[in-house]
Amino acid sequence: MALSVPAFAIPPYDNLPEGMDQETYDRLNDGTAEWDEIGDLIRYYNPLYTSYMTEIDASMEDLESSIGTDFMEYKEQLSSVDKALESLYEGQKELEALPPGTPGKDEYLSYLKGQIDTAITGRAELIAGLDTLASTDAQLDGRLYVSGTSTGVRSREAMEFQLYPILEQLQSAVEGLFISYEQLSISRDMLSEQVSLYEKLLATQQGLYAQGLCTQAEVNAASADLSSARGDLQQLEASIGQLAGAIGLQLGYKQSVPVIGKVPEPDISYLESADPSRDLQKAAGENSTVKDAGRSDGTTAGTESRDRRENEAMGKLSAKLSELYADMKEKKLLYDAAQTTLQKAERTRASADRMYGLGMLSISEYQAQMLAYTSYRASAELAGLNLVQSINNYKWALNGVVSLD
């Protein structure tokens, strides 16, 4: 897998993206995509999100020059947003190319479909917003007042705020892809160790056969195990490369593949502080389904209908938070059990090292112990990633990124 500096990494000089300092620019363009950089990479380089921001910047220039008929013509320029959808479809194609059974593939294909639907809806909302702006007596200094508030905000900031749900959805999806990438990497590392052990075992069997101490069938079996492990490793390497490319596409890497950074350890303290009943109001304030259900046309019938819809949406959200909370608890139990098992396996491995050094274990017995330890270690690491994903799902639900269907 070729690794190189991202295609967008050029000397910035005085052309830093708006809102970015030189230190951030250098960090984002070092060829490694870190977990804590995902949000910034999406904001500044994701094809979909930056397309929207480009249109927003263009709209600000229009406001400064013409707020009447000239600004209405700006709607025609929104056709360029369709190019962003093409980029999103390209990302969907990348994921579809992954082999069947790839961890997270179906989940994130479904999630990308949701992003496409959201992008289409967001485009329509931007057009409607621009229609409203065209009829608004905007001030020539570029400041607009949001209805219901007493303080003015820059129209660019107001528009960017409307895009924030898309930014969050993209970040949530890419974080999930990071987790899938590390899951595949753990499996690859385990397979690599298995291949190494099988190579040693085959060499041992061949040596024993030459001395007449084992049969050809035993040599053939060792050779078959090695060939199978090598084939599995090759397929996994291909899947990892494809997934890295899909991640890179979402982070603005057009002609290169980034080095994918590590996923952080599970935040156990967050799990301990989570409370679905207490967190419900925060989640409701961010959830678009609940907010849409809370709208009314002002009539008595409309208010009654709104109350029914809102109560139904709140009930679904409450049930979803409880479900996600229970999943965190379950993943924590599995994580603890895997850590306990790994500790026992480490002691067994240390004992096997001593016994093998003293000649009390044969090479095949020793390698079997090493394979078992490798499996336990991988299981513990995967349990940690599953817990990270579960905690992440709950965190994003509080920010409104969750489906209530």
Secondary-structure element order, N to C: HEHHHHHEEHHEHHHHH
How far is the first residue's CA from the last residue's CA? 39 Å
Strand content: under 5%
Main sheet specs: 2 strands, parallel
Contiguous helical run count: 13
Description:
This protein is an all-alpha fold and 405 residues long. Helices cover 72% and strands 2% of the residues. The chain has 13 helices and 4 strands. Strand 2 (143-145) and strand 3 (152-154) form a beta hairpin. Helix 3 packs antiparallel against helix 5 (81-96), helix 7 packs antiparallel against helix 8 and helix 10 (276-286) packs across helix 12.
Layout of SSEs?
Layout (H helix, E strand, L loop, with lengths): L21 H7 L3 E2 L4 H8 L1 H19 L3 H4 L8 H16 L8 H30 L8 E3 L6 E3 H56 L5 H35 L8 E2 L7 H6 L2 H11 L1 H6 L6 H58 L5 H36 L7
Parallel strand pairs: 1-4
Antiparallel strand pairs: 2-3
Helix pairs in contact: 2-7, 3-5, 3-7, 5-6, 5-8, 6-7, 7-8, 7-13, 10-12, 12-13
Short overview:
Helix content is 72%, strand content 2%. By secondary structure, it is an all-alpha fold. α2 packs across α7, α5 runs antiparallel to α6 and α12 (300-357) packs antiparallel against α13 (363-398).
Q: Could you list some keywords that capture this structure?
A:
405 residues; mainly alpha; two-stranded antiparallel ribbon; elongated
